[in-house]
């Protein structure tokens, strides 16, 4: 059995199952401290299907990008459990997990997380036969730069994000009819998708080396930091 967890946004989720079946899934949208809810959530999910931690064969966790504090909590918890249970740990991208909600629609999918100051964490994927491949690597960049790149594609793009309503007007203005939006339920990461992706990925070779993925600062942010320090 695989235990999958996601704490990378304000939505917290836990799932347990294998490569064939999701045995249990729990999600909460409350914007409170993940450190207070993650372990009780794990306990709830395991007890709901009569599993004990020692029966787990693998741990999976989203390693970002996302909330600095949230990602750290998830990664730290997953590493501690994997080490204490002596089971493999699988790292899963938050943006890939989010984009996988659009795997039933052929074409481009852009998953993103607002990073403030005009920036977003974003990845662009191409879907074919319900399989995702990376079309543009995950990056931290200015939203306007991302949209310019997507405009140049001259293709429809499905946008998925918890923050989509913050930028819906801009996305529509820049891409027009090429901007496609998913259902509300598709705009959050789902622990069942973390589980599914993890069942198809190799585990980390060194649990201690697993760290949050915050991505590199965009050039604009670097310039702002330089100006503030000069």
Tell me about this structure.
- Residues 136-163 form a coiled coil.
- By secondary structure, this protein is α/β, with parallel strands linked by helices.
- It has helices spanning 34-48, 68-85, 94-99, 143-153, 164-175, 191-198, 219-229, and strands at residues 2-6, 12-17, 22-28, 58-62, 89-92, 107-116, 119-128, 131-142, 157-160, 179-181.
- It has two domains: 2-94 and 189-209, Nucleotidyltransferase, domain 5; 95-187, ATPase, nucleotide binding domain (Nucleotidyltransferase, domain 5, 2-Layer Sandwich), CATH 3.30.420.
- Helices cover 35% and strands 29% of the residues.
- α5 (164-175) links the parallel β9 and β10 (179-181).
- α1 (34-48) packs across α2 (68-85).
- The chain starts with a strand and ends with a helix.
SSE layout and pairing:
Layout: E1 2-6, E2 12-17, E3 22-28, H1 34-48, E4 58-62, H2 68-85, E5 89-92, H3 94-99, E6 107-116, E7 119-128, E8 131-142, H4 143-153, E9 157-160, H5 164-175, E10 179-181, H6 191-198, H7 219-229
CATH architecture label of the largest domain: 2-Layer Sandwich
- Please state the overall shape, judged from the principal axes of the Cα atoms: elongated
Integer average pLDDT: 93
Strand content: 25-35%
Q: What attributes characterize this protein structure?
A:
230 residues, alpha/beta, Nucleotidyltransferase, domain 5, 2 domains, 5-stranded mixed sheet
